[in-house]
């Protein structure tokens, strides 16, 4: 294994509910270094582009509406095995089946409103990091 970077979003539901600090604390407790962090809000074209892989899914329109409903926190994270490791700390997409102690088990309220995003592969992590952060922010 090697040190990797991954990209994460604290989604609008968790920011609005005041869970951002606790989610960041869980990420740090799992050994991630926060390389960069910023609060922002997705435009509709940005949300459509970010989740373009799901464009044909029945939940796509609802997902875009959800991801644009309020501010989000975007993060660049670094750790050994960061990509798979963050997905483990996040828990399953559906909080009903997420493992105990995971972020989604604790804070997600539905399969849609599931409080956090994490990149799913090295290629998507690189694209997503580049979408939100400039090279000078990731030194
Ligand atoms: P993310 O990409 O946000 O990290 P994920 O990789 O666990 O989540 P995906 O299958 O990529 O899950 O789905 C992207 C997002 O779309 C989910 O996190 C969730 O917000 C929403 N979503 C996924 N499946 C459904 C569904 N069946 N109904 C409603 N929303 C869904
Ligand atoms: Mg995904």
Cofactors, ions and other ligands in the entry: adenosine-5'-triphosphate, magnesium ion
Number of strands: 4
β content, as a range?
15-25%
The SSE order reads EHHEHHEHHEH
The biggest beta sheet, please? Answer: 4 strands, antiparallel
User: Segments where pLDDT lies below 50 for 5+ residues?
Assistant: none
If you consult CATH, what is the topology? Alpha-Beta Plaits
Note down, in words, how this protein is organized.
There is one protein chain. With 139 residues, the protein is α+β, with helices and mostly antiparallel strands. It has one domain (3-138): Alpha-Beta Plaits (2-Layer Sandwich). Helices cover 40% and strands 20% of the residues. The chain has seven helices and four strands, in the order βααβααβααβα. 30% of the residues are buried. Bound molecules: adenosine-5'-triphosphate (ATP) and magnesium ion. Adenosine-5'-triphosphate (ATP) is lined by residues 54, 59, 63, 93, 111-112, 114, 117-118, 120.
């Amino acid at each position: 294994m090697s040190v990797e970077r991954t990209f994460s979003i604290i989604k609008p539901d968790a920011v609005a509910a005041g869970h951002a600090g606790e989610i960041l604390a869980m990420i740090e407790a799992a050994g991630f270094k926060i390389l960069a962090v910023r609060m922002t809000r997705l435009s509709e074209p940005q949300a459509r582009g970010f989740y373009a892989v799901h464009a044909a899914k029945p939940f796509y329109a609802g997902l875009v509406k959800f991801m644009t409903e309020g501010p989000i926190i975007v993060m660049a994270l670094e750790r050994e095995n960061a990509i798979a490791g963050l997905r483990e700390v996040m828990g399953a997409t559906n909080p009903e089946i997420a493992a105990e102690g995971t972020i989604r088990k604790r804070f997600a309220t539905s399969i849609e409103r599931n409080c956090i995003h994490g990149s799913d592969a090295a290629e998507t992590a690189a694209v997503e990091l580049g979408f939100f952060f400039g090279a000078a922010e990731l030194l």
